[in-house]
Amino acid sequence: MPPTRPIRVVLAKVGLDGHDRGIQVVARALRDAGMEVIYTGLWQTPDAVVRAVEDEDADVVGVSLLSGAHTTLVPVLIDGLRAKGLGRVQVIVGGIIPAGDVPALLALGVAKVFTPGAGLTEIAQFIRGAVERSRGAGGPSPTPARAP
Amino acid sequence: MVTDAKLTAREACEQAVEAAPERDTSLTTISGASVEPVYVPDEPTERYERDSGYPGQYPFTRGIHANMYRGRLWTMRQFAGFGTPEETNARFHFLLEKGQTGLSTAFDLPTLMGLDSDHPNSLGEVGRLGVAVDTVADFERLYAGINLGDVSVSMTINAPAAIILAFYLATAHRQGVAWSKLRGTLQNDILKEYHAQNEFVYPPRESVRLVIDTIEFCTREVPQFNPVSISGYHIREAGSTAAEELAFTLVDGFHYVEETLKRGLAVDDFVPRLSFFFNAHSDFFEEIAKYRAARRIWARHLRERYGAREPRSGALRFHAQTSGVSLQAQQPEVNVVRVAYQALAAVLGGCQSLHTNSRDETLSLPTEEAVTIALRTQQVLAFETGVVNSVDPLGGSYQVEAMTDRMEAEAEEIFAEIARGGGVIRSIEGGYFRRRIAESAFRFQSEVDAGRKLLVGVNAFVEPEELKIPTLEIDYEIERKQKANLARVKSQRDAAAVAAALDRVRRTAASEENIMPALVHAAESHVSLGEMVAAMAEVFGRYQPGV
Question: Residue B219 and residue B212: Cα distance in Å, rounded?
Answer without folding.
Answer: 10
